[in-house]
UniProtKB/TrEMBL annotation, chains A, B, C, D, E, F:
This is CMP-binding protein. Gene3D superfamilies: Hypothetical protein af1432, Nucleic acid-binding proteins. PANTHER family: 3'-5' EXORIBONUCLEASE YHAM. Residues 158-293 form the HD/PDEase domain. Signal peptide: none annotated. The keyword Repeat does not apply. It comes from the Bacteria. SUPFAM superfamilies: HD-domain/PDEase-like, Nucleic acid-binding proteins. InterPro entries: HD/PDEase_dom (IPR003607), HD_domain (IPR006674), NA-bd_OB-fold (IPR012340), YhaM_exoribonuc/phosphodiest (IPR050798). Pfam families: HD. The keyword Hydrolase applies. Keywords: Hydrolase.
Amino acid sequence: MTEKKNWNELKSGESLVAFFLIRRVETKTTAGGNRYLDIVLGDAGGEITARMWDCKQEDETLYQSNMLVKIKGSIAEWQGKRQVKIDKIRAVVEDDQVDINAFIPVAPYSPEAMYAELLQYLSGMENVKLRETVQLLLTEAGEKLLIHPAAVQNHHALRSGLLYHTLTMLKAGEKLADVYTFLDKDLLYAGIMLHDVAKLDEIDANALGIATEYTVEGQLLGHIVQGIKKIEKAAGKAGLDEETSLLLQHMLLSHHYEPEYGSPKRPMFPEAEILHYLDIIDARMFDMQKALNETEPGNFSDKLWTLNNRRLYKR
Amino acid sequence: MTEKKNWNELKSGESLVAFFLIRRVETKTTAGGNRYLDIVLGDAGGEITARMWDCKQEDETLYQSNMLVKIKGSIAEWQGKRQVKIDKIRAVVEDDQVDINAFIPVAPYSPEAMYAELLQYLSGMENVKLRETVQLLLTEAGEKLLIHPAAVQNHHALRSGLLYHTLTMLKAGEKLADVYTFLDKDLLYAGIMLHDVAKLDEIDANALGIATEYTVEGQLLGHIVQGIKKIEKAAGKAGLDEETSLLLQHMLLSHHYEPEYGSPKRPMFPEAEILHYLDIIDARMFDMQKALNETEPGNFSDKLWTLNNRRLYKR
Amino acid sequence: MTEKKNWNELKSGESLVAFFLIRRVETKTTAGGNRYLDIVLGDAGGEITARMWDCKQEDETLYQSNMLVKIKGSIAEWQGKRQVKIDKIRAVVEDDQVDINAFIPVAPYSPEAMYAELLQYLSGMENVKLRETVQLLLTEAGEKLLIHPAAVQNHHALRSGLLYHTLTMLKAGEKLADVYTFLDKDLLYAGIMLHDVAKLDEIDANALGIATEYTVEGQLLGHIVQGIKKIEKAAGKAGLDEETSLLLQHMLLSHHYEPEYGSPKRPMFPEAEILHYLDIIDARMFDMQKALNETEPGNFSDKLWTLNNRRLYKR
Amino acid sequence: MTEKKNWNELKSGESLVAFFLIRRVETKTTAGGNRYLDIVLGDAGGEITARMWDCKQEDETLYQSNMLVKIKGSIAEWQGKRQVKIDKIRAVVEDDQVDINAFIPVAPYSPEAMYAELLQYLSGMENVKLRETVQLLLTEAGEKLLIHPAAVQNHHALRSGLLYHTLTMLKAGEKLADVYTFLDKDLLYAGIMLHDVAKLDEIDANALGIATEYTVEGQLLGHIVQGIKKIEKAAGKAGLDEETSLLLQHMLLSHHYEPEYGSPKRPMFPEAEILHYLDIIDARMFDMQKALNETEPGNFSDKLWTLNNRRLYKR
Amino acid sequence: MTEKKNWNELKSGESLVAFFLIRRVETKTTAGGNRYLDIVLGDAGGEITARMWDCKQEDETLYQSNMLVKIKGSIAEWQGKRQVKIDKIRAVVEDDQVDINAFIPVAPYSPEAMYAELLQYLSGMENVKLRETVQLLLTEAGEKLLIHPAAVQNHHALRSGLLYHTLTMLKAGEKLADVYTFLDKDLLYAGIMLHDVAKLDEIDANALGIATEYTVEGQLLGHIVQGIKKIEKAAGKAGLDEETSLLLQHMLLSHHYEPEYGSPKRPMFPEAEILHYLDIIDARMFDMQKALNETEPGNFSDKLWTLNNRRLYKR
Amino acid sequence: MTEKKNWNELKSGESLVAFFLIRRVETKTTAGGNRYLDIVLGDAGGEITARMWDCKQEDETLYQSNMLVKIKGSIAEWQGKRQVKIDKIRAVVEDDQVDINAFIPVAPYSPEAMYAELLQYLSGMENVKLRETVQLLLTEAGEKLLIHPAAVQNHHALRSGLLYHTLTMLKAGEKLADVYTFLDKDLLYAGIMLHDVAKLDEIDANALGIATEYTVEGQLLGHIVQGIKKIEKAAGKAGLDEETSLLLQHMLLSHHYEPEYGSPKRPMFPEAEILHYLDIIDARMFDMQKALNETEPGNFSDKLWTLNNRRLYKR
C-alpha cells in the first residue's frame, strides 16, 4: 500500500494503483451519448474524483458507494483539478488483506475483544431468566452485532459502533452501581445490552459496518418499539416473569427520556433513569472527544450540530 | 323508584328507602373509639353524605366507591347540613331492575346495538386476513368491550364509551373515504377499530363500566405500545402480510400525532393521518356537545380543561 | 403541439417552434455591451434555458415570468448544455388554443363545474340572510374566484386551487354534519365558503391563476382580518343578525387554530372547530396525495416541508 | 364619614352607620326557610360580612356587587367573628357626596384633567384626516372613556385606568420621538390613542368604572379585531387615505407583539414597534410601582403573576 | 426520651414532658384580648398543635420555627382534636443530648466523616494551584459546610445535604473518570467541590442545618454568579493560571445546562459536561430513592413535582 | 480619491491607483506551484476580486481582512469577469488621510463628541460612589471605548457602535425617567453606561473598530458575567455600598431579560426593567432604520434575521 500514500502527490499523467473506498458513484452520459461512471474515491488521505469511461452495463450496478475497490489508472487534469482516469477496477477480496481502518472510522478495540468483554457482563448476571432473555436476543443478533454501527450520522456512526457504545455503557454502569448501591445491577445490565439492539433492524448496514439507510420498519416504528417487541418475545421464550419483562420494556421505551426524542414515557424507576444518563453521557463523550481531536489547543471547534451547535474549547 | 325523586325534599327525621351509587367511602373512628362508614351517596339528583354507625368489619371492605347499593335509613341534620343515617345497606341485585342510566353517564345507544353496527363494518372489509386480525382482537376483548369506558377522566369517560367512540369514528371515516377516494377503507376501518383497543388493558374498569385506575402495564407502557404488541401477535396468527401489519402498527403508533401526546412518529401515509383527525374530531365533538348541554343560550361555558381552557359559546 | 413533445430530443442546430411558459426572465448585458433576455422556458416536459439576443427595449418589460409565449428559434449548445436561441417570441393568444394544463398545475375539475356545485350548496342554505351574506361576497369575488390559487407555495397552489379546496371542504363538511347532527349546516357552509375568500385580496395572482406575491394589505393584515372586515360589511348589507355575523367572524378568526398560525382565538363552538379540521384535513390530503403520486411503491418520499419534514410511505 | 374610620373598632352590640362598597352578595335561606342577603362589605379599611335578615324580593336583585350603599345596623358576633346585622340599606345618591377614592382603586389624576391633556396631543396632530379619524372614535367613545378601566384583572384595572394608561403612553411616546426623530409623531399618537379604544366594547364596566366581565363580542373577537373594524369605518368617514388607514390597523393588530398574546402579525414599521414597547413599559411600570408600594425596604414582594411570578426587590 | 414515643397515645388530661421541633409558631389573641402562642410541634412521630396561654412578650420573639424545645404540659381536647397545653417551654441545650436525627432529615453519614473523605479527594489533586484555590474556598466556607443543606425544597434539602451531595458526586466522578480516561480529574474534582459552594451564600440556614430562605444576594444574583465571583478571587490569591480559572468559572456557569435552569452557556468541554450529568444524576437518585422508600412494592408513588410529575414504580 | 469613483468604470487593461478595504484574503497556489494572494477588495462602490501574483512570504501574513490598503495595478478579465491585477500594495498610513467612512460603517457622530456627551451624563450623577464606580470602569476602558463596535454581526456592528448605542440609551433613559418619576436616575444611568462595557473584553476588534471575533473569555463566560466581575471590583475600589453594587450587578445580569438570551434572572426592580427596554428599543430602532434606508417606498424590505425574519414596510 505504498501507493496510497502517494496519490496526493502524483502529477498529471502519472499512473496509479491503489485501494479506495467508493464514496459516491453516478452514471453519466457524454455529449456523444456514451455512458461513464463518475466516482468519488476516498481513503484516509482524502477524496478524489475519478472517471471510468469504458463502462459496461453491469458495472453500473456493480459499483456502489461504500464499497472497497482496487483501482488501476492514471492522474488526469480537468478544469484545473486533478482526477483519476480509471483503467481497471475490481472489488477488494480477502486476499488483498486491506486494512479497513484506513478507509472508514472503526471502534478503537477489536469487535471480538469487545464481544468477549460483553459476555463477561452477561455471565455475571444472577437473574437466570433475565440473563437468558438477553442471551436469546444476542444470539439472534449474531454476527451483525460485531460490526454494526450505532447510527447513520450521529455518535458512534462507526464500524462496531453499536458494540463499542454498549460495552462502554456497561463499564460506566458497573461503576455507578458501586456508588448508588440500591440499583439492581442485573436489570441495569440487561437494559444496557438491549437498549439499542433493535438498531440492527432499524438501520441497514453493509458488510463494512457502514450504515446505509433506515429500513422500512425502522422508519415506520423505530428501534424503541422494535426492541420492545423483541423483548416481549424473548422474555416469553425464556420464561421471564411478567413484571421484570415489563420493567425491561419500559426501560427501552423511556431511554430517550423526552417525547420529542422518541420516548412517550419518562423513566419510572432508578435503573431506567440511569440507563438514559449512561446513554447520553457516552454519546456526549464520544462526540466531544472526536471534535477535540480535530481542534488545536487554545481554540474552539466548529459548531457541532449534535451538541446544540456548541463550539468546544480545547485546552 | 319514586323514592329517589324525593330524598332532596325529605326533612330531618323522615325515613328513606332508595338506590344510590357510592361515590366515595371511608372508614372513620368516633371519639369513643367506634368505627363507622362515612359515605357519599349519589344519583341523578345530586349527592348527600351518609353515615353507617353500626358497621361490621366486613362492611369496611364490602362497600367500595362506584358500587350500586340499596339504602334504608333516615334524614338527620349535622352542623346545619342534612345527611343520611343508614340503617340497612346492601348491594343492588339483578332483581332490583335498577336503571343504571340514572346513576352514571352512559353512551346514548345500547352496547348491543352499537356492537352489531361495528360488526357490519368489520364484515364489509375485503382484505380477509386484515379482517381476521381485527376479528381475533375483538374476540379477545370479549364482553369488556361492551361496557368499557374510553378514558379515566377525558372524553368518552362513560359506560360503553370506548365502543361508542369507535363506532362514531367508523361512521365519520366511512364518510370521509367517500370524499377522499384514494383512501384504503379496509386499512382505515382496521385502524379505527383497533386504535384504542388496548385501553381495555391500560385502564381498569369495574362491572358498571366506570374507569377506576390505570393498570401497572398501562402506566409503564401505555395503550399505544400495548396495542402494537397485540396487533403483532394477532397479525401473526391471521397470516397477515408483513407490510400491512407494519402499516397497522404504525397507525397505532402515530395516532396521537404529537410526541408530547404519546406518538413518537407522526403519520406517514394518508390513512394514518385521517385516523388521527377522526379521533380528535370525535373527542372534540363529544366534549363540546357535553359542555354546551350544560350552558344557557347566549352564555359561555366554564373554562374547559380538555379544550385548552377555552370557554364555549352557546347560541 | 407535436413540437412540444420533441424539444427534449432536438439536437444542436435543429429548429424549434413551440409554446412555453416563461418561468424566469432576466435582462443581461454581453461583454460587448449588448442587452439580451436570459429566459427559462418550461412545459410539462421540463425546463430549458433560452436567450434572445436581439432584444428591443419594450421586450424587457413585455415578457414576464408566468406568461405563456410562442417561440420560434433553434437549439444551440453552450458550456456543454443545450439552450434555445430565440428568433421570434410573442404572447399566446386565444386563437392559439393552448391547453393550459400542459404548463401549470391546475385543479382536477373545471372551474365552471366546481362553481356550479358550490352554488348548489349555497342555494341549499335555509338561513336567508346568511345565504345573502355569502352571496354578496361571492358576487364581489367575481371571476377571480374561478382561477385563483389557494396559496403562494403551500397546498392547493394551483390554478382554481381556492375553489377546489373550498368545494372539497363543503363535501366533507356535509358528510361530517350527517354524523354530528347537532352541527348547524348553514353556519358551517357559510364558514367554509368564506374562510379563505379574502385570499383573493391577500395574494396577487396573474391571469393564469398563478400566485405571484402577497399584496401590501395581505402582508400588513392577512386574509383572516381582511375576511372579517368583508363579512362585517356584507352582513350589514344583508341585514344578518348581529349574533350570527359575530359567529361567522369568529369562525374566520379561529380557523387556523393556533396563535402562531394566525388565529388569536381558538374555536369557541363546534362549527368553528369543525371548520378548522376540514381545512387542515383537506390540506393534508392534498399534500399527501401529491407527494405519493411522485413516489415508487415500497419507498419513502422526500422530506416534506409542509408536513413537518415527514417522509411518506407509499404502499 | 367619621363612622367609617370606626367600624373596625366597634364591639358586639354597638350600632353602625356607614358607606360601603358591596363586594359580593348572595341570597341564602335559613333552616327555617326564610331568605336573607349574605353580603361582603368593603371600604379602604377592609372587609366585613353582613347579613340582612328581613329581605324583600326586590332587594335580591337591587343590591349587586360593586355597588355603593349606605348601611344602618349593628355589630353582631357569629362563630367567633364579627359581622354586621343590617337594619337599613340604600344605594348611595349624589347628595351623599361620597368620595369614591375610598372604595375603589382610581387613577391618580382626575379624568377631566387627563382627557383635556389627551385632547392637547390630538390637536397637535398635523395630518388632518388622521386627526379626524381619531376624533371620530373618541367622540363615539364618549363619556365611557372617562372612567373605563383598562383591564379586568391586570395592569390599570382601576377607574379611569384606560385613559390614564393612554395618556402616560402619549407622554412617553412624545419623549422617545424626540430621541428617535425619524418616527412619524402623528401616526404614533394615533396608534397610542386608539390601541385599546375597543376595550370599551370588549369589557363591560359598571357606573363606577369597575370592570365586570368580558362582552360576548369581546370574547369571540377581542379588542384588537374590534378596534381594527372601528378604524376601518372611521377612516372611511374621515376620508383618510388607504395606506395610512392600513398602517393604523396594522399597529393595532401587532401591538401585542407575540402571537400567543393575540397579535398574528409582528410590527412591520418603527411606529408599530414603538407602540408595543410603550404599551408594555407602561404596564410594567404600573405593576411594579404598585407592588413596591406594598413592600418594605430591603424586602422582596410576593410573587407577581403578571410579571412571570417574579418577586420584586424594594430598596 | 421514653415520653416522645408516647405522646401519640396519651389521652386528654394526661401530662407530657418531651422534646419537639417547632414547625410553625404564631401569636394570636383571645376574644378576651389575651395574647397566646399557637404552635405546631413535631418529631419523628408526627405533628401536634399546642397552645401556650400565659405568654410573655419576650416569648413571642424567642420561639421561632425550626427550633428545638423541651415542653412540659398536658393533653387537651378542642373541637374533637387533641392538642398540647404548654405549661413550660425552653430551648434545648447541649446537656439535653437530644439526637437531632429524630427531628429533621439529615444526611446518612456524619458530617465529620464526609468532610474527611472530601479532603482525601482534595489532597489527591496534582495541580497545586488549583488545589489551593479549592482549599481557600473550603476554608472560607468553614463550619457552615458541615451542616448546610443543598436546597430549600428540592433534592438534598437535609442537614449536611450540601456536603453529602458533593461527596457522592466526587465518588461517581472518580468512577466515570476511570472509564472516560481523557477527562482531567483535577479539573473535574475542583468543579464538583465548588459547583454549589456559593449555596452557603445563596441560602440562609439555621443552626440545625435547615434552609430558611434565600438571601437578598442569592435572589438577585444566584449561586452560579456568586460562585464565579468567589472563584475569580480565590484563583487570584492562589496564583492559578488564567486559563484554568476561566475553565473552572465556565464549569460553574454551565452546570445547570439549560438557560431556563440558570446556565446562560452550555458546557464547552468534557469536564464541564460531566459535571452537569453528575449533578443531575445525584439529584435524581436522591429523589427517587426517597420516593420509593415511601412506596409499597407493586405500587406507584404520588406524582413527584421534582421529577416532572412522574409517578415512580416500586418493584 | 478621484480614482476610487472610477474603478467600476475602468476597462480591461486600464491602470488603477486606489484605496481599498481588504474584505477577504486567501493564499492560493497555481498549477505551476507558485503561491499568490487572492483578495476581495471593497469600498463604498462595491467589491472586486484582485490577485497579487508575485507575493513574498511576509505578504501572506501581513495583509489581513479588514485592513485598509493602497493598491496600484490594472484591470484584467478572467472567465468573463473583471478583476484587479495588483502590482503594488501597502497599508494605509496616517499621511494618506483616508476618510474611513467610505470603507466601513461608522456611527453618525464623532466618537469624541459622543464621549463628551456621555461624560455630561456621568458628571450629573449625584451618588458620588456610584459615579466613581462608573468612572473607574470608563477609565479602564480607555481609548477602546471610542471606536469599539457593539456587536460582531447584529445591531450597532459599526465603528464606535458601542459608544453610540450607550449614548442613545442615555438620552432615551433620561426622557423616560421624566415620565416615570419614581425611577432612580443615578442607578439607571450607571446601568446604561456599564451594561455592555464588557463587550470590550468579549469581542476583539481591530484598529478600525471592526469586530473580528469573540475572545476565549467572551465565549466561555460572556459579557454579562464579565461585566458583573468588573463591577464587583470597581465598586470595591470606589467604596460603593454593598446593596447598590448588588443592584447594579443584577441590572447587568437581567438586562437580556430572557434566559435563552443570556439572563438567568429577570429584572427585579424598575430600573433594571427599564434598562432592558431601552436596550431592545435602541437595537430595534437601529435595525429598522437601517433596513428601511435600503427599501423603496411602498415596498417591503427583505426578511430580517435580527427581527424574527420580519419584512418591514417602507411608507
